[in-house]
TrEMBL record:
SUPFAM superfamilies: Pseudouridine synthase. One of its GO terms (biological process) is RNA processing. One of its GO terms (molecular function) is RNA binding. Residues 5-133 form the Pseudouridine synthase II N-terminal domain. Pfam families: TruB_N (PF01509). This is Trub2p. The gene is TRUB2.
C-alpha cells in the first residue's frame, strides 16, 4: 500500500501468509473514498505537490460531475468487456455489464472501475466512492486530474482511503493503538472464515463462459 493510501490493508502472519496469497489470487474488488479539490493542478496530481496552474471552478455543479462520473464508469465497463474479447452487442456482454455481477478478466488487466459515485460535493472540495480492481495511487491521482480537465478546470487528489477490500471493511481494521497480541489474534480468528469464503464463482469475481457464448453466436 502506498504511503498516501490509508484504510483497510490485509496482512498475514506466519502461516497466515498463505491466506494473503488466496486474497491476492482472488483479485477482490476494493472500494475507496477519494478526496479531490478543484481549482489548481500540481506536478504530482496530489495536493502536496508543486502548484503548476490555477483555474476557476465555480461553473462546476454536482450534476455536471455526476454525469461525467457516469460516462467514466460506462467507459470502464466497455473496456472490461473488450478485454474479455466479447462483442458489445452479444448476450455475454449484456450479462457482463448487468447489475447481477462484475466482469473479472481472466488475466491481469489495467485498472478497471466498477462503480463511481459522489459521496460529498462542497466546492472546491469533493469526495468520491470508487470500486475497482488493479488500481494504484497513480491511477487515482490521474483520475482526479482528468476529472478536473474534463470539467474545464483543474483538480488534485487530497486523500485516498480503502474502505472495503472484498469482505473486509473498516470495522475489521485495527487502529495503531490496537496493534497488540490480543487484538491481532482476535482479528485473525475473525478473518479466517472470510478468507475461506473467497471463491472465483462469487458474484463479484465471476468469470464469463466465453466458449459457451461463442457457440451461441456461431449458431445464431
Amino acid at each position: 500500500m502506498h504511503k498516501n493510501i490509508s484504510g483497510v490493508c490485509v496482512m498475514g502472519v506466519n502461516k497466515g501468509t498463505s491466506g494473503t496469497h488466496t486474497v491476492r489470487e482472488g483479485r477482490l474488488v476494493r472500494t475507496y473514498s477519494l478526496g479531490g479539490c478543484f481549482g489548481f493542478a500540481t506536478d504530482t496530481a496530489f495536493h502536496d505537490g508543486k502548484v503548476l496552474t490555477k483555474a476557476t471552478y465555480r461553473h462546476i455543479t454536482k450534476s455536471k460531475l455526476a454525469r461525467l462520473l457516469m460516462m467514466i464508469q460506462a467507459s470502464h465497463q466497455q473496456s472490461a468487456v473488450h478485454f474479455l474479447g466479447l462483442d458489445l452487442q452479444s448476450q455475454a456482454a449484456y450479462e457482463a455489464i448487468s447489475e447481477e455481477g462484475m466482469v473479472r478478466p481472466g488475466e491481469k488487466s489495467p485498472p478497471l472501475i466498477y462503480s463511481l459515485n459522489i459521496l460529498d460535493f462542497n466546492p472546491p472540495n469533493f469526495t468520491l466512492e470508487v470500486s475497482c480492481i488493479n488500481e494504484n495511487n497513480y491511477f487515482f491521482q490521474d483520475l482526479i486530474h482528468k476529472i478536473g480537465l474534463q470539467l474545464k478546470s483543474n483538480a488534485v487528489c487530497t486523500h485516498m482511503r480503502c474502505i472495503r477490500y472484498g469482505p473486509w471493511t473498516l470495522q475489521h481494521a485495527l487502529l495503531r493503538k490496537h496493534w497488540t497480541l490480543e487484538h491481532i489474534i482476535n482479528n485473525i480468528n475473525i478473518s479466517w472464515p472470510l478468507i475461506r469464503g473467497i471463491k472465483p464463482e462469487s458474484p463479484s469475481l465471476r468469470d464469463i463462459d466465453t466458449d459457451k457464448y461463442s457457440e451461441d453466436v456461431a449458431e445464431g
